[in-house]
Amino acid sequence: MSAADQVPLQIVAYCCHYCAYAAADLAGVLRLRYPGEPKIVELPCTGRLDVLEVLHAFEHGADGVMVAGCLEGDCHFQVGNLNARRRVAMVKDLLNQIGLEPERIEMFNMSSAMASQFAAAAEEMTARVRTLGPNPLREESVS
Question: Most buried among 10, 109, 134, 139, using CB within 10 Å?
Answer without folding.
Answer: 109
